[in-house]
Amino acid sequence: MKKDFILMCLMLITLFLFPFKVFGKEDRLLKIEQKIERLDQRLSNIEMRLTRLEANVEDIDKRFEELNRRLEFIQKLPIGMLAVFGGLCGVFVGLLLWDRKTFNDRAKEEALRELEDKYRISDWINALKEYSKFDERLAEILKHLKLL
């Protein structure tokens, strides 16, 4: 009996010192469910991060598109400026040629008027025409020069 008692005491002491963890099916299922819930939480956190990343990527895409539009405008700007400059040069050359022509025409008219006023050429021609009525040789010369 003493032996049995001592044996029982030793068994109880070992049970208290080294307790065995014996889980049932329900405990295992609970732990699995908790792990699954933690995994679900992690996955939902990952999904939230991914949606934020997608939003950031879309913002970056919009910025790149805006930069592309600006670059296209900047590339077209020198071409437009060159076209405007060329057009202005063409207008300037046209105006210069027109002015030169009108200036030359006016200068010729003015020179003829001055000569007419100074030397009275039309009076001379009229006098020669009148004299050609009396002189056949002068009439032929004036006809040859197409003054008659």
Estimate the mean pLDDT confidence. Answer: 87
- Helix and strand run: HHHH
Oligomer: single chain
Q: What percent of the residues sit in helical stretches (DSSP H or I)?
A: over 70%
Q: Structural class of the secondary structure composition?
A: mainly alpha
Total number of distinct structural domains: 1
* Alpha plus pi helix count: 4
Structural summary, described in words:
- The chain has 148 residues and is mainly α.
- The protein has one domain.
- The chain is built from 4 helices and no strands.
- Helix 3 packs across helix 4.
- The N and C termini lie far apart (176 Å).
Summarize this entry quickly.
The protein has 148 residues and is mainly α. 89% of the residues lie in helices and 0% in strands. The chain has one domain.
Question: Helix and strand layout, with pairings?
Answer:
Layout: H1 2-17, H2 25-119, H3 121-132, H4 136-144
Helix pairs in contact: 3-4
Structural features:
single chain, 148 residues, mainly alpha, 4 helices, 0% strand
